[in-house]
Amino acid sequence: MSVNAPVLMPMWMIVVAVAGLILVAAWLLRSLLVTRRDQSREVGDIPMAPSERGQWVERVETAARRFTAGETDLRGLHLELASAVRGFAAARSGEDITTATVREILDMSATTGPDDVEDRLRLVRRHRRPLDANPLGHVGELLAVWEQPSFDRDPEAAAEEAVSEAREVVTRW
């Protein structure tokens, strides 16, 4: 009996295997690119003209003047500043946050801090200042800080701090 030489794999099988691997790699790459996280909320990418920004600065200054003149109390000041900052953030980010709760704003913003909204709120309330570097997250945390100080011992200091934080949001973002 004679021994037969080994039979090699046909070339068409190698071509089919390489083509299959290329198709699988292309499908994986496409699925990763299509399902990646939407990063448009991370930074306000809607440009704002200086005149439009000035309108929001004026709203903050008007609220500060009304408080200084005694026309409104600390709670009223916080409500006016919150309205101005919410309107500015909505115009800047493209997200309708004028009626969103603080938790909803924090949920829709990409954070640089803890991912859990409740953990973020606990940290912010403990430090009594916004901690997030993301502009929309910063606004949400700022609104959370302004919820409580209506009964502060020193309303003048709380008012000055609130006005300066609102000015910072409107001028920097």
Topology:
Layout: H1 11-34, H2 50-68, H3 74-93, H4 102-108, H5 117-127, H6 135-146, H7 155-172
Helix pairs in contact: 2-3, 2-7, 3-6, 3-7, 4-6, 5-6
In short:
By secondary structure, the chain is mainly α. It has helices spanning 11-34, 50-68, 74-93, 102-108, 117-127, 135-146, 155-172.
Labels describing this entry:
single chain; 173 residues; mainly alpha; 7 helices; 64% helix; elongated
Explain this structure to me?
- With 173 residues, the protein is mainly alpha-helical.
- The longest helix has 24 residues, at 11-34.
- It is 64% helix and 0% strand.
- It is built from 7 helices and no strands.
- Helix 3 packs antiparallel against helix 6 (135-146).
Instruction: Name the overall outline.
Output: elongated
Task: Compute the average pLDDT.
Answer: 79
Number of strands: 0
| Uncertain spans | none
Q: What is the first-to-last residue Cα distance?
A: 87 Å
Task: Name the helicity range.
Answer: 55-70%
Number of helices: 7
